[in-house]
Amino acid sequence: MYVARILYPVEVLGPGKRIGIWMVGCKHKCKGCSNPELWVQTPNYCISAEKFKELIQSICDNFPVDGFTISGGEPFLVPNDLNQMLDIIKFYCKDILVYSGYKLETLQNDEECLKCLSKIAVLIDGLYIEELNNNSFIRGSSNQRIIVLNKSFEEKYHRYAANGKNQIQNFMLKSGGFISVGITGKNFKDDLINVAATKDLLIDK
Prior knowledge:
Elements: E1 3-10, E2 18-23, H1 49-60, E3 67-71, H2 79-89, E4 96-99, H3 104-107, H4 111-117, E5 122-125, E6 145-148, H5 154-163, E7 168-172, E8 178-182, H6 188-198
Parallel strand pairs: 2-3, 3-4, 4-5
Antiparallel strand pairs: 1-2, 5-6, 7-8
């Protein structure tokens, strides 16, 4: 499977302290995508299921985990890989939220994708459309839908959506850089570059 990063605690993409997983590979190539560096699967992102499980277990054994959020890239690009990942993480927590550029109706037409959907609590579906980025809660653009697939989580996510507002969370990297996580506005990258310029920081454009 291809995984770019695993972050904890992610608190801006679902309720509670979550493990965020960013998969690699995407054919959608949406205008204004916040993670274009994750479109192409390259060997440096390849990780075995055993290593992935080891990393997840090391977090779950030492910290409280309220859920998982899987983004990308496009998690459903290789549904076999996603299915394998879901089998690993559902052991630790069944609150699994997945972002996909595919519509639910499209995913339901594929047998392997259906297996994945049966293990997901919440799906946020639909392509990111930059012109429809209007700060909709936990969605990149307003056309995307929050679909509760596991009805046992319906009340939890209803409360979360009713009281939530988009925020950005920064993670420091061992390499010395940082990653911003969360739902960004249309001009977030330009704003970030402008702020960085005033502080003599370099932002990859």
